[in-house]
Amino acid sequence: xxxxxxxxxxxxxxxxxxxxxxxxxxxxxxxxxxxxxxxxxxxxxxxxxxxxxxxxxxxxxxxxxxxxxxxxxxxxxxxxxxxxxxxxxxxxxxxxxxxxxxxxxxxxxxxxxxxxxxxxxxxxxxxxxxxxxxxxxxxxxxxxxxxxxxxxxxxxxxxxxxxxxxxxxxxxxxxxxxxxxxxxxxxxxxxxxxxxxxxxxxxxxxxxxxxxxxxxxxxxxxxxxxxxxxxxxxxxxxxxxxxxxxxxxxxxxxxxxxxxxxxxxxxxxxxxxxxxxxxxxxxxxxxxxxxxxxxxxxxxxxxxxxxxxxxxxxxxxxxxxxxxxxxxxxxxxxxxxxxxxxxxxxxxxxxxxxxxxxxxxxxxxxxxxxxxxxxxxxxxxxxxxxxxxxxxxxxxxxxxxxxxxxxxxxxxxxxxx
Length: 417
Fold this sequence. Notes:
The protein is of the alpha/beta class. It has 2 domains: 33-277, Rossmann fold, CATH 3.40.50; 290-415, no CATH class. It has 13 helices and 13 strands. The chain has helices spanning 3-27, 54-67, 137-150, 189-198, 215-220, 242-251, 256-273, 289-304, 307-316, 331-341, 345-362, 398-402, 405-415; strands spanning 39-49, 73-81, 106-111, 124-129, 153-161, 177-180, 185-187, 204-208, 227-230, 279-285, 328-330, 363-369, 380-382. The strands form 3 sheets. It has a 9-stranded mixed β-sheet, with helices on both faces. A two-stranded antiparallel sheet has the order 6-7. Strands 11-13 form a two-stranded antiparallel sheet.
């Protein structure tokens, strides 16, 4: 082979190799290496919408794009969805038009860019996989690890979205958080905490889901985040206004408490100030989770030791604050009931000690707005309204296994049988 032929052969081989590499990267985008610049905050949004939230999730993405990523903040999302069905409005002659993006299904990982075009998603799709179980905690953990590796930051803010039902994500159950209608799966409280810890944790965890601010769930998040943000009550179907949330984050310092406050500020503005809805939304300091369990356990044991205290719940249950889940009681109000009504000095002091702890350490901010939310203090606890409501699944929770709360509530509710 002549020298010219050899040079031509080598040149042609290099061109062919580069072409194949280019095609490989186009066909398999998950293998791409993304920007490695360390920013101040990376916002990770994980939403399981293989359910009736499929259309709402597209609106969420549109809201994210109004703000987008910037020089300080990365916004990345994993959206897992099925095709959405419009809700029929019998009072309108013109029904909701399905957006073009309604055709896509499966899990997409997206780098959210600023884009003001309403009704169309223009951000970068970094990967797309079909038939991914949104209710699989391993998937959530993998998303967090992937996001932290490819979009490093000084602080990480995780939002887990979808349907939620507090501690009732003890399997088998209808919903925990991130319920997937196709797989019939969900992420249980223990799986949620394990998923975050396995991924190295985050600075702030926020639940864009109903009824998640319960002590049973919060205890599972110990060591997984500094702060937990969420609602004791059912949240509106649209959840966070992501434009307002990202706008607040862009103004905040890259500090855990400031980020948590930004989430609360945006939620209050969106649902109470702009729409006058009754809301509950709070920030919990998860560093005090173990102390919370100890104090609740001590109160439970004090109640169990006195027959008159065991009867107090059935005598006062109608005066206690509850939520859409009628068996979720406000923890502060429950302790206050025992502090005011118990004749047992030990129980009185245990209840008062818990009240001071909640107000001064555990609940760092609470926003209860509107007439429906009066007397909500930011954290719920399970206390069945009637004995028939008692669920044995509650005893499978870590919180139940490590405290006497389940024994106490069982004795109390069956005392009124």
